[in-house]
Amino acid sequence: MINFDKFQIAKMKDTIGWGIVGLGNIAHSFARDLKLVPDARLVAVASRSLSKAEEFGSQFGSVYHFGSYQELFDCPEVDVVYIAVPHTLHAQLTMMAIHKGKHVLCEKPMGINSAQVEKMVAAAKANKVFLMEALWSRFNPCLRKVKQLVDDGAIGALGYLQADFAFYALDRSEEGRILNPALAGGSLLDIGIYPIFLAYLMLGNPEKIKAVSRFHKTGAEIQTSMIFEYPRAHAMLYSGFTCRSEMKAEISGSHGSIYLHPRWHETQGYSIEKEGNIQQVDVPKTGKGYAHEIDEVHACLRAGNIESELWSLNNSMDLIRIMDAIRRQTGIVFPGEG
């Protein structure tokens, strides 16, 4: 873990000042949870529309409302920036923030391909600032508990994992983020990242990947089925926009199984089955669940760390490389990708 003395100033601050870039639905959820973190302060929000920034800022009590992203990056009271714009802008805006000396929590996926993520990681290290992918499920208390159970051998050696993420979206605008390839639309980067993340978290990098996709008339991918092969296990994963799934994940080993309750990526409970006995366990979360990743950012900043041990920059690199491999197999491409 890399540590830089310049961050020790964060220990002296009563509150850490946040800026939010991109003010869509996920930013609203994030801002609501930010209010639940005692040492967090919403300093500034930015949109390409000043009126939108003013409306959002008034709703959530930010000090400054900006009609450009650059103005927020220039704001000296902002310590860390949450990037919540469409996928195709993640790399560009993260790099702008980093070069202004801001710490960054970037919404998943960190970039649309590994080349982008490599540049982002290199820039963060060169500028000695904190960077983390906002994969909020990693910090969910229930998932952290289940990860510990698996690591401790509670269900034996893993042999099978199943996870999916699906909702109906074929009625969405073809110009919108979901179905527009120019905005890196499609299910894989938007929601497929979650089951891929779960398999990676529990089993690591797969030895082999088999994947197949279906596409919308716009060219956006709308269904992807995946099999990850490991030395002693298989993971069966799925994402799609053609139907709604229950979203109950299963992790099975030689001595039992753990079932993550729906919707598993933001779950508040699990069931563990061993020798025919089933125990249900509730593990509450704070708010929607974003408060836990905010707490992790704060802990890292106060410790002077430029990355998280729970979700490191290497973890983000592994994840995007897995998605790149899936895209090569299935032919998922984005216009002007770079």
Classification by helices and strands: alpha/beta
> Overall pLDDT, averaged?
96
Q: Could you state the order of secondary-structure elements as H and E? A: EHEHEHEHEHEHEHEEEEEEEHH
Q: How many beta-strand runs?
A: 14
CATH architecture of the largest domain: 2-Layer Sandwich
**Computed CA radius of gyration, to the nearest angstrom:** 20 Å
Helix-residue proportion = 25-40%
The parts where pLDDT drops under 50 for at least 5 residues are 4-12
Identify the CATH homologous superfamily of the largest domain. Answer: Dihydrodipicolinate Reductase, domain 2
Predict the CATH topology of the largest domain. Dihydrodipicolinate Reductase, domain 2
Strand fraction band?
A: 25-35%
Instruction: Give the N-to-C terminal Cα separation.
Output: 29 Å
Give the number of helices: 9
Shape: globular
Instruction: Note the main sheet.
Output: 8 strands, mixed
CATH class of the largest domain: Alpha Beta
Number of domains: 2
Q: How are the strands ordered across the major sheet?
A: 8-9-10-7-11-12-13-14
If you had to describe this structure to a student in words, what would you say it looks like?
This protein has 338 residues and is an alpha/beta fold. The protein folds into 2 domains: 5-136 and 299-306, 3-Layer(aba) Sandwich (Rossmann fold); 141-284 and 320-330, Dihydrodipicolinate Reductase, domain 2, CATH 3.30.360. Helix content is 33%, strand content 25%. It has an 8-stranded mixed sheet, with helices on one face. A 6-stranded parallel sheet has the order 3-2-1-4-5-6, with helices on both faces. Strand 8 and strand 9 (221-230) form a beta hairpin. Helix 4 (90-99) packs parallel to helix 5 and helix 5 packs antiparallel against helix 9 (313-330).
